[in-house]
Each structure stands twice: as C-alpha cells, then as structure tokens.
Amino acid sequence: MPKWYKETGKNSDVVISSRIRLARNLKEYPFSSKITKEQALELVERLKGATPVLEVKEEKKYFSCNVDILSDAEKTAMVERHIISPLLLAREQSTGLILSEDERISIMLNEEDHIRIQSITGGMNIMGAFTEANAADDIASELFEYAYHEKYGYLTSCPTNVGTGLRASYMMFLPALNVTGKITKLAEELSQYGIVLRGTYGEASKSVGNLYQISNQKTLGSTEREIIESLNRIVEQVMKQERRYREYILTHSYDEFEDKVHRSYGVLKYAKQLSSADAMTLLSQVKLGFDLELLNLKEDCNVHELMMEIQPGNLQCILDKNMGSGQRDRFRAEYIREKLPDMV
C-alpha cells in the first residue's frame, strides 16, 4: 500500500505534508512522568488491544508492536518517516505503537502522554488529516476513559497541550526563505501569532534539506477548527513569501542558480559516496529545480520520497543490512543514482 510520503498533493512545491496530532491520557493511570515500570507495561498492552477494533471499524490493516524491543535501525527509520518521535525513543519504560499499513495513522503509546494519535497526508490537506485522526480518536474514546476536565478539556502532561490536545502542523519546503536569510525573522514573526517554526524532526531539531515544521503552540481556549483555520491563514502567507523569494532569485541570479541546480544533479547522478547531510542539501537544490522547471527529466521523480529513503535508518531497512557510516555513504550514492531519472 502506498505510504503517505509517496503522495503529492495541493501546493506540494512548498507544503510537503499536513499533520494532526491529538494528545490523550487515560483517567486511571498516572501521567507518563509519574507512571511506574509495571503500570507502563500494563498500559501499553491494554492500548495495543485497540488494534483489531481499528481494523474492523476503519476497514484497513493496522499493526502494533512494542517499540522498545525493535532494532536501532527500525526505530531510527520510524523517526525519519515521522511515524514516532525522538522523545518516544528516549523513554526508558515500555512504549508501543499502533500503525496503519499506509503509515497515515500512527498512535504512539506511553510517549509524553499515554496516547498520541497522529495523521499525516501529503501536500496541503490538514482537514483530511484531522478527519482521519478524529475518527481514530472516536474509536479509542469508546474503548478507554480519557482524563478530561469540564473547564480545561483534555488533560495532558504538558500545559500547552491542555484543552483540545490538538497540534496541527505543516512540513514546509522553504529553500528561498532560507538562502535569503529570512528564516530567523520569519520564526520571530510567527511566534507573535502563537505559531512556532521548528526543524525537520520537531522540537530542538535542526532543518534538514530546507524542511521546516510550522505548528500551533497552544491549544487551550480555542476549538479544533479555530486552531486549524488560524494555522492555514499563516501558512498561506508563508507560501506567498517563499514563492516571491523564489521569483526574486530567478530574476536576479538566474544563470548562477540554474548552474547550481545542474551541478547538484550532476553530483547526485555520478557521485560514488554521499553522506546523508550532503545528499539532503543536493536533493533540496534538485527539488527546487524541478519545482521551478529548470530540470527536464525523462520520468517523474518524487524528490521528497527519495529524501526519506536515503536517511540512515531507512536505507538500512530497505537494504536489510546493518552498515557503518562509510558503507552507508557508498550505498546511498548508488541508490540515488538508480532512483534519480536521467535528463532529457
């Protein structure tokens, strides 16, 4: 079944994906910061029991597992594909995952909260993601009693999630804003509207390949629809800025930029070794070249899909082989040469 990151949707030149995350806790257990080892193990096993119910009611295949017993490569690959968070990996207690076959719905168990329901769609389709996450939440609420307060809403480990427990976010491709030095100013402007700009893998992470997350910062005092509509208005403005600066670059530095795009393509097509950092930088240049129609290839190419696949964990899972960094760099270069279409 095609994964979410193979999709290209609305405004996919700038908006890579849309994500909704719902934070929930069970009434009868202490929050994750206070839960005991035995309670955590019991909690995860109970929550995993929702898997067959999700399958029947949503008519799609789901898998469940204990994350803490997976291999390092498998866990790293899941972080790279945004299935689980780095925080889940850091948990010393029992943790779990319920995952749909297309990886659009992932439910983290015993992360910062007992349940983190996440839905991801390709392109700008936040309402589609919300509909899917909300459906999974409705099913879970029938099976488990949530910690809920009439005045404050859903109770969560972090005060900023109290209320709806909803975090709406977009993964955005912002190379022009980055190269023109506007990213820092953008982050400052967004914070004034209760919107936060983070790196590729969320809080405390850096941007990789000019990919940034933009999401709401608070959930208390607003409805789900108000949060989503507010974020959409901001993202529309960010898209306009990014596209305006892309046009500025083309107008003022066309020859230089065209040369950089083709050089990046040439290195990707013929290099014998590529680190993940170098590959992401070069693929970012090539994606921008595609979006601005500066590259003409014999076949369509989903550059973001390739960006996901060449990350260290995913590359090892695809090849079913544990490798050191040097060996990965050679296989990464070979993989990109095979996947990247020839120019016309």
Q: Got a strand count?
A: 10
Assembly level: single chain
**Strands side by side in the biggest sheet:** 2-3-4-5-1-8-10-9
Average pLDDT for all residues: 93
> What gap, in angstroms, lies between the N and C termini?
31 Å
Taking the sheet with the most strands, its summary is: 8 strands, antiparallel
Low-confidence stretches: none
Can you describe this structure?
The protein is of the alpha+beta class and 344 residues long. It has a domain at 252-339. It is built from twelve helices and ten strands. It has helices at 37-48, 51-58, 72-80, 86-90, 126-143, 175-179, 183-191, 224-270, 276-291, 303-309, 312-319, 325-339, and strands at 15-24, 62-66, 96-100, 105-109, 115-122, 148-149, 153-154, 166-173, 195-198, 211-216. The strands form two sheets. An eight-stranded antiparallel β-sheet has the order 2-3-4-5-1-8-10-9. Helix 8 packs across helix 9 (276-291). The two termini are 31 Å apart. The mean pLDDT is 93.
What is the compact description of this entry?
The chain has 344 residues and is of the alpha+beta class. The chain has a domain of 88 residues.
Blueprint of the fold:
Layout: E1 15-24, H1 37-48, H2 51-58, E2 62-66, H3 72-80, H4 86-90, E3 96-100, E4 105-109, E5 115-122, H5 126-143, E6 148-149, E7 153-154, E8 166-173, H6 175-179, H7 183-191, E9 195-198, E10 211-216, H8 224-270, H9 276-291, H10 303-309, H11 312-319, H12 325-339
Antiparallel strand pairs: 1-5, 1-8, 2-3, 3-4, 4-5, 6-7, 8-10, 9-10
Protein name: Protein arginine kinase
GO molecular function: ATP binding; creatine kinase activity
Domain Phosphagen kinase C-terminal: 14-245
